[in-house]
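To whoever is covering the structure queue this week,

Two jobs came back overnight. Logging them here so there's a record in the thread.

Job A:
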Amino acid sequence: MKKMVASLILSLLAIVIQAQEVVPYRIFNSKASIVSFEILAEQANNSDVVFFGELHNSAIAHWLELELAVSMQKRFSSNLVLGAEMFEADNQLLLDELLEKRIPIQKFEADGRFWPNYKTDYKPLVEFALANKLRFVATNIPRRYAAAVGKDGLFILNSFSADAKRYFAPLPILYDTSLSCYKSMQSMAMASGGHGPAYIVDAQAAKDATMAHFIMLNFPKEGAFLHFNGSYHSDNHEGIVDLVHRKMPKLKILVITTVEQDQLETLDDENEGHADFTIVVNSRITKTY
């Protein structure tokens, strides 16, 4: 009898400890069921293009990006290509020179234009590509051209030189204005009373189209492309994803998104249905900036 009571107490204690366990993140599939990282990685390793939609200041997202790159490199070896919104197309030569070991990483970092959180969040990806001889594509439109579009609209890109046009998507840039990502951005711009760029949706479309263009231009026929971008660019299979799918409909595309929640046991209603996998990060996790 004493043994049964002791066993019951230990079982109850284990349940209490488990209930109090601090969980930094959980992963949900498209049916809002909790799954392991291994299941996500397995699906990624059976895809042609993987869009990892991140929260830019999430340490958990950046760690899982690296872990996914490690997993996919084991599957595809040198046929895995990395690409990122965080690197602009006119920095591709510099990135290539680094990966070809023609310049040291110190020179790369001195001469490049990087986001403020580059060293903590994106340098590990660059170092991983360097160590494993992977191609890394700078996919984003240079910010000076995006700013020009934000001010004057997409037509302004026609006025730039042929050399400049190498760094953004071929003209004319066409996009589906009915997609929710563009409609909601337009609604937010109107709600702000006109503050911000006059053509903010055009600027977003220029970024999406340019990233889609460089992904398709550098897609490995015998491998896979892993792209890192803010989740807004790929949520709901819109933005970059929609543009790639229209041109290359036979590709197997996997979309990951990242959100924050106060609780991690279920997916909040507003976070359901936006991606094939949703990484839910504990909202109390420290941000990288």
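Job B:
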Amino acid sequence: MNLNDYFSRLLSLFTALPAYRTDSLLLAGRSVCLNTPSEVLHSRLIPALSHLLVDSGDTAAALTIWYAVDADLPGKVTAPPWSGFNAQGFNTTLDQEGVQIFFQPWQRQVFLYSRQKRTGIYWVQTPEDLPWWEASFPFRVIFHFWTRDLPAQLVHAGAIAKGGKGVLITGPSGSGKSTSCLTLLRCGYQYLGDDYVWVELGEGLKVYTLYQTAKVEPENLRKRFPDWMRHVVNKELLGQQKAIFYIRELWQDSFITVADLSAILLPRVMHQEHSVFERIRPTQALLAMAPTTLHHLPHHREAAYQKMMQLSAVLPGFRWNLGTDPKQFEQSFDQLYSDALSQDQCYHTHAQ
């Protein structure tokens, strides 16, 4: 059995369903159709995407995703029959030009995508096998598969905006990007994401909210955001999971879905009082975005890397050295917008 046959076999289980639920999304101007017979998966996965829901229309879907557990399908799904999958879910021995697959053998879930059909499949064996983090960024792998043929890229970064002018806040886990994004949200800035965002590389660079979820380590929650504890949607599991929030439902006035991209910021926690910005080279911005993005999403790495290289070449980059004074933290960010990201300065930077 080759990968195309495996995809066709799984797809036939979905298309044989006598009834299923359909949701329509609008993502960066493109229509996405989500089909499932599973009410329990729907209740767990859709909340993170609820800001993208639209009424279904006659427009043909640019992407269709089927998702289910075994109990809701007319036949059982067999695990991928090939060896060679690595820890990142990638298999170098398979021809993935037409159909792509993400599979981690120790988990009971599979992601598939057909480029020709523009159709993705997500299967998890039982609701109990659904990893907790999947509910915070549902179908992320399939969305990444889809971007291979689009002028778009998922980026491991947060995004914050003011007056429709957005910045990417990126870096490895523990660098302070989530804390920075949520602190700025609390200060009144506009929020587009704190973990993964959708970037369009058309005529003008834009960043779109992909998920309305935010995740915070329990210790960080208690230390920096104790007043938000009542908003945590998974309180009973905080010993095993990060705290999850639904941002649009709690901070609707600060939640937006798209902004023009103006800069890339690399936060770094410092043992100093003041927060300050310093200009960095494009290669530094690229090395903050690319490694973690490509580690989480290893398929079509060369194409994804080229897109992130384009971003870092066009956008000005800054190191944001984070100090301990919370008031000055906000002032430093205000200063970035009023000075470094003024219209004239941004134009001058892009022209170079």
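Note for Job B: The first strand starts at residue 21 and ends at 27.

Please reply-all if you pick these up so we don't duplicate work.
Q.
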